Amino acid sequence: MIGLKKSVLLYENTDINMKRLFILLITAVMFYHCGNDNTVNTPNDPADYTKIYTAETGSNKIDVYSKTSTGFIYGYNDIAFKVFINNAEQNSGYVKFKATMYHGLGGPNHSVPVSPQFNFNSDENLFTGYVNFIMYDTAAFWIANFNYNEQFTIDSSAFTLNYSTRTKIAAWDNSQTERTYFLTLIEPHAPVVGLNDVEMMLHETQNLQTFSEISNAEMFIRPWMESMGHGSSNNVDPVNVSPGRYKGTANFNMAGEWFLYDSIKVNGNFITRTPTPKFTLEVN
Ligand SMILES: [Cu+2]
Known about the structure:
By secondary structure, this protein is mainly beta. It has helices spanning 2-13, 15-32; strands at 50-57, 60-66, 75-85, 88-89, 94-102, 109-111, 118-121, 126-133, 141-148, 152-159, 168-174, 179-187, 194-205, 211-213, 217-224, 236-242, 245-252, 256-266, 269-270, 278-283. The protein folds into three domains: 1-28; 50-159, Sandwich (Immunoglobulin-like), CATH 2.60.40; 167-283, Immunoglobulins (Immunoglobulin-like), CATH 2.60.40.10. It has two helices and 20 strands. Copper (II) ion is lined by residues 101, 103, 110, 135, 137, 140.
């Protein structure tokens, strides 16, 4: 009992350090996985969902589908659900999905950015949305909680996460706003010489348990080829297209390694810090 209280207090007092540790872990994981790539092939057909996992309790069942890969992967995942109650498929309402990462038994845990709710999409006949697995660690384990329409829940369903380099993620703290930001580069995942569609998501969190989509940001991108010391013209700054999601265009006018910088303003103030967050891309 005393031990439990102590550990809770310790956690509260070290919340800020916990965030720093988290940012460090992300960076370490990124470096660790250089040259250890396990990229999973992705379906070409954008409408193609693959069933990757089933969670069930009693007579309630949720099938999990992905459009991004054949399993959950590090980074951005377009996912969807089918819901069954007593084998009857449900076609209304919503699913809430929460994924939690545990860094070892009794170790720190945190959640990840995810659609606030997965509404039923009658075109796809699925409850559609996204989840953004912002960390990968072979020593960690993951559990999911599902809630269908406040009618039933499936709790603590374990799943596995595969590594992938498809998505790039930048994270930083801002001491003025007292938030941690996550910028996720969804496209281009295989950049080519010339104009590339850029798609990103932006989230903020205060506690690493709840993440909010930021939809009112202004973004200013700058491609930069460091080895030759030049940028490019004809870039289009990403603009908000749906909750938390931004689309624009980046011009990589030569093959090789490029940085894609993104300076971001919210309510007229820069939330990005120096150095400006950047993604490193190999352009072919
Ligand atoms: Cu983690």
